[in-house]
Structure formats: structure tokens, C-alpha cells
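Worked example

This section walks through a single chain of length 186. The input is the sequence exactly as stored; nothing has been trimmed or padded.
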Amino acid sequence: MSLDPLLIVELVALGLCTGFLAGLLGIGGGMIMVPFISAILGHRGVEPGLAVKMAIATSMATIIFTSISSVRAHHQRGAVRWDIVKRLAPGIVLGAGIASLGLFAVLKGGSLALLFAAFVSFSATQMLLDKKPQASRTLPGSAGQLGAGTAIGFLSGLVGAGGGFVSVPFMTWCNVAIHNAVATSA
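Given that input, the structure is written out below as C-alpha cells.
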């Protein structure tokens, strides 16, 4: 069985674009990968509901590689706030596990596609509004960061996106400097 050369070119181009944006923005690339992989699979005859689930699962599998590369570069610049990572990460793992092992398994592909579209729309709206936090706002305590991490991980596990689209706005809302929020999210 041979691979279609056009498929290889499409996936390499998608991988390069996703990797570049992951490093630049501190995201895992799911917002880019899921729609494109869904379209690529759909054009090759995969049923749309299954294509969405396959795209989300593929995106989740690749996030680890883009995140490792990105966090390494940000760490070398001293931008990662490891104190925040220690408090958010356990919740992110818990939330992603609950979403991927529970709700993801029972949701239909069409429902996941709608959830993904709503998630992207919400994220884009928040970025466009560019609301500034109150100067006195700070990160919540350990329990609050664990809860926020759980919500971030849950959303990430459902839509196959790195938590950057939630964790970066959350951290900046809590007055963490944007370059630290992006680096820490990675």
C-alpha cells in the first residue's frame, strides 16, 4: 500500500504551519489541525462524524511534540512561570482525562464539530474584544488554579486543542504578562 503524494504534501504543509504557530503562540495547534484534518479525511471518503473524531484524536496525539519544542524554547528564554505550571498542570491532566475518557467517547462526531466551532468562535471573540483585566486581579490560590486547570483540560480534551486558547486568556485576565502566559501555556 502506497501513500498518496498529495496527502503527504498536505500533511507536511499542515504540520509546518501548525508547528510554527504553536511555537509562536504557545498553542498545541488543534485549532488549526482539527478543521484541516477533518477536511482532508472527508475528501478521502471518511464519514464526517468519524473524520472529526479522528482529527481530534490526531491533534491530541501531536500536541505533546509541539508543546515540548515550544516549552523548551520558552524555558531557555526564562519566560515559563513554573510556579503556575505546578498548580495548573494537575487539573489540566484531570480535566483532559475526564473529557477524553468520558464525554468524548459518547458524543457523536457532529456534536463534537459543533462544540469545536463554538469553542473557536468564543476564543476568537475574546481575542477581538481584548478586554483588559482590573489591575488588582491576580491568580487564584492553589485550589482555584487546580479548578481552572481542570476546566482548561476538559475543554482541551473535548475539542482536541491545546489548552493555550483558554489558559493564555485566563492567565492574562489574572494579570500575568502575555509573554509569560504564552510560555507557561506551552
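What to look for: The chain has a mean pLDDT of 83.
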